[in-house]
Amino acid sequence: MQRTRGLVQLVTKDGRDDRLGTGGCRLEVNDPFPGGVAELIKVALDTPPADVLGLLGPMCQLLGARSARFYVADYALRRLQQIDRSGHVGPPELIEGMFIGRAFTSGEILVAGTDPTVVSIPLAEGTSRIGVLQLDYDTWDGVLPTLLDPVVATFVWAWIIKNRYSDTSARARRTERLSAAAEVQWDLLPPLSCSVDELAISGILEPAYDIGGDSFDYAFNRTRFDFTIVDAIGRGLSAVLMSAAAINSLRNSRRAGLGLAAAYEQADLSISTQFGDSYYVTGVIGTVDLGTGRLSWINAGHVLPMLVRNGTYAGTLTCKPSMPLGTGGPVVEVAEEPLQRGDRVLFYTDGITESRALDRSFFGDERLADFLVRAALEHVPVNETVRHLSDNVIHFNDGRLDDDATMLLIEWRGTSG
């Protein structure tokens, strides 16, 4: 189905938004390049890690396009930076309020113009957004090329895999200087968003280019979803090293099959042993049973998470606090909350609510809760909710943050146990 708005077409599938970009578009024209995708895959396999953008030429040939441009989302998810085989091309473009940004945020393939016709295709690894691919066409019959799905998928695959061996992706994502501490923190993070049938997750860090001791981690396993969010005391590289020690200790425990209490004890010992009694990390360590939706969590001296249920603010989830990691002490409580379908739970650091405007007023709990409720009522996806919330916090503070501000938003989509 195509809906036309002036010179703009929203190309969707079966009358519904295609939130995963090209993942389900109906493609109906004949394939003029039999075997073309297999050849593109072979070329991709042979492509040097630093030259993935060399695939744009063969992709244009397969898709019948005159030319192509690739834009990468920056660390803050506020800008799209065009890159070619030599690096950045021109200044970055703002995501908010721009046509290309609309393709990125909506997950829709957008078509605009007549000379040439520009097709903007959102790119994602699963549901973790990467950027936008633009294709130029001299003539446009209103139907997407048959090979669009597999060609774009091949490019995304090559971009993700090959850049494990290159700095190309990391360089492309920065539109301003990244601090050494932020460099460590971003390399520590999992993808910013991911979703399965039962659960969606999205997180974000601010200030993106100078983040200190905040971090988060998660893992989808067969029957459970494990996650953590941490806030290390202090700022800069020393705080990042503490949060890295906490995250990696918790990963180690998770991968060893230890429970929440044992994971807390190991992380507590790791921080105290490595950094001494004067340093600590607050945080939440949790898990969601993917069969029942039961949330279990430990509060290590951290701010309490907010719950939005049935389109209203249901307050904070409570858990008797254990001591921060590194300060010793037993687990006081492993709290449990049976999640209901549609529930959204926001885990965050105090840099969100304690951030101040120029008049010294706080962002505060009430403003945060109101934003979460409005996003839920308007059915804003979790990844866009945290991106918009991050923008709101930054604008509230006139572009400056005195402390790190991190969010991890979970939406339960399954049934209740």
* SSE ordering: EEHHEEEEHEEEHHHEEEEHHEEEEEEHHE
According to DSSP, the number of beta strands is 20
Average pLDDT over all residues: 89
Radius of gyration based on Cα positions: 22 Å
Which fold does the CATH topology of the largest domain refer to?
Phosphatase 2c, domain 1
Per CATH, the architecture of the largest domain is 4-Layer Sandwich
Task: Write down the CATH class of the largest domain.
Answer: Alpha Beta
Global outline: globular
Please tell me about this protein's structure:
This protein is an alpha+beta fold and 417 residues long. Helix 1 packs parallel to helix 4 and helix 6 packs parallel to helix 7 (236-255). The strands form three sheets. Strands 1, 2, 3, 4, 5, 6, 7, 8 and 9 form a nine-stranded antiparallel β-sheet that branches. A six-stranded antiparallel β-sheet has the order 10-11-20-19-16-17, covered by helices on one side. It has a five-stranded antiparallel β-sheet with strand order 12-13-14-15-18, with helices on one face. Residues 1-34 have low confidence and may be disordered. The radius of gyration is 22 Å and the shape is globular. 29% of the residues lie in helices and 28% in strands. The chain has helices at 36-46, 56-63, 99-106, 148-162, 168-172, 180-188, 236-255, 260-275, 364-377, 382-396, and strands spanning 2-5, 8-11, 67-73, 79-84, 87-88, 93-94, 109-112, 117-125, 128-137, 193-195, 199-206, 214-220, 224-232, 281-289, 294-300, 306-309, 312-316, 335-338, 344-348, 405-412. The longest helix has 20 residues, at 236-255. It has two domains: 2-172, Beta-Lactamase (2-Layer Sandwich); 180-412, PPM-type phosphatase domain (Phosphatase 2c, domain 1, 4-Layer Sandwich), CATH 3.60.40.10.
